Amino acid sequence: MTQDLIWALLLSWGAGIDLYLTVLLAGLVGRMQWLPLPSELSFLANDWTLVLAAALFLVEFVADKIPYIDSFWDAFHTFIRVPAGILLALGAAHGIPQHRMFLVALAAGLVSFGTHGAKASVRLALNSTPEPFTNWFVSFAEDGLVAIAYWLFLHHPWVLICLIAAAVVIAWLTIYLLLQFFKKLFRFLKPEELRQENWSPRPKRY
Fold first, then answer.
1. Contact 13, 167 (CB under 8 A)
2. 3-class SS at 62?
3. Reported pTM
4. Which residues contact 111 (CB under 8 A, 6 or more apart)?
């Protein structure tokens, strides 16, 4: 796997968790010349891009730790994180043959939507708890996970690939399990089931 494809994998995965931190760290990696950015994404190392990404990350850093606000933020960012993850992956993989670009876009969409969906679902479940500390812990853990992913990219890229692959599988499994949980929690009975539950034999008259 080429370095550009690893960039595509990392950016699409990170965008689903924390888009602004992902962009900020990618820009810093390119700016510090620790790794070359793909040519189509060289703008990430631009001063204005770094400042904007840092400002938006600070906003998300606060919003992500407030119960219910974090779920609203995640719902709104469904329309931002997933498309951004796809676009970043396409920019990173710009050099591959054109007939494979659709596969890159499809894979990036599955990765971004999987990580974003798992994050949003877990946060929604955590908001049912009365204390905010679990939100804070999970939020710090998500940011730390993105930072560790960049460290692995710099030093152990193949470990990063394996961990992201495992994380995507776990993310989709988490989405499935939480959907089953919410389906049971907010289960609406069908008309025939309501009739069966409400039906009771009439008392006999003598």
1. yes
2. helix
3. 0.83
4. 9, 12, 13, 16, 85, 89, 164, 168
Residues lower than pLDDT 70 in the chain: 1, 130-132, 181-206
What integer pLDDT is reported at residue 12 of this predicted model?
A: 95
Q: Which residue is it, tokens 């010349």?
A: 33
Alpha carbons 37 and 25: distance in angstroms, whole number: 11
Please give the pLDDT value at position 9. 94
- Residue 164's closest CA among 44, 22, 20? 22
Instruction: Return the half-sphere exposure (C-beta side, CA atoms, 13 A cut-off) of residue 86.
Output: 15
**3-state helix vs strand vs coil in the chain, percent to 5:** 80, 0, 20
Q: Which of 129, 130, 146 is nearest to 61 (CA)?
A: 146
**How many Cβ atoms are within 10 Å of 147's Cβ, its own excluded?**
15
Cα torsion 128, 70, 179, 10 to 10°: value is: -140
Q: Which of 1, 4, 44 is nearest to 25 (CA)?
A: 44
- If one counts every other C-beta atom within 10 angstroms of the C-beta of residue 151, the result is 11
pLDDT digits (tens, 9 = 90+) for 67-90: 889 989 999 999 999 999 999 999
Chain segment 131-145, per-residue pLDDT in tens: 667 888 989 999 999
Q: How far is the CA of 89 from the CAs of 14, 79, 103, 105, 190, in angstroms?
A: 11, 16, 11, 7, 44
- The domain spans of the chain are 3-184
In one letter, which amino acid is 190?
Answer: K
